[in-house]
Each structure stands twice: as C-alpha cells, then as structure tokens.
Design brief:
The chain has about 80 residues and is α+β, with helices and mostly antiparallel strands. It has 2 helices and 6 strands, in the order ββββββαα. The strands form 3 sheets. A two-stranded antiparallel ribbon has the order 1-6. A two-stranded antiparallel ribbon has the order 2-3.
Length: about 80
C-alpha cells in the first residue's frame, strides 16, 4: 500500500507537501477521527496518471482491516504550553 499526498512548488517555502486525509476507519476511532488515504498497489497508477476526478474517487476510508500499534500516551502529552517570549 501507499499513503497519498500532494505537493506543489511555492516561492515562499519551496516544495509544499500535505497528506490527503479522509474520515477515520472504525479501527482508528480511539486514535483519531481522520486518517491518511491508503492506496492498494493496483490503484497507484490511477492516482499518479489519472484525471483529477479519477484521483479524487480514490479518496476513501480504507476498507481493509488495519493494525493499530499505538503508544501508551498520546503524542504531545505532557509537553509544556508554548510561551511567547
């Protein structure tokens, strides 16, 4: 499988990247309400070479069973609050 992302060049930051997110699967519910689009190998060509409409059609919650391996604490837990200085 592959995770889906998009990018574009910008004058301000150079190449700007973003993961494409969809509603989370039931298995991800305890972790987050969103998740990255996950593509099966047979869909890579459609994502890379298809029309925008064909690529958008692939932006769906992964129907496959996923294994969630998570830490005991949420990321960022216990970090001190940012202060202005």
């Amino acid at each position: 499988f592959a995770g889906v992302g998009i990018w574009r060049p910008t004058e301000e930051w150079g190449a700007a990247y973003s993961m494409v997110m969809v509603d989370g699967s039931a298995q991800m519910a305890e972790v987050h309400d969103r998740m990255p689009v996950v593509l099966a190998r047979e869909d890579w060509e459609q994502w890379l070479a298809g029309t925008p409409a064909e690529a958008f059609a692939l932006c769906q919650t992964c129907p496959d069973e996923l294994t969630v391996d998570r830490t005991a604490e949420r990321w960022g837990a216990g970090r001190p609050a940012a202060t202005s200085g």
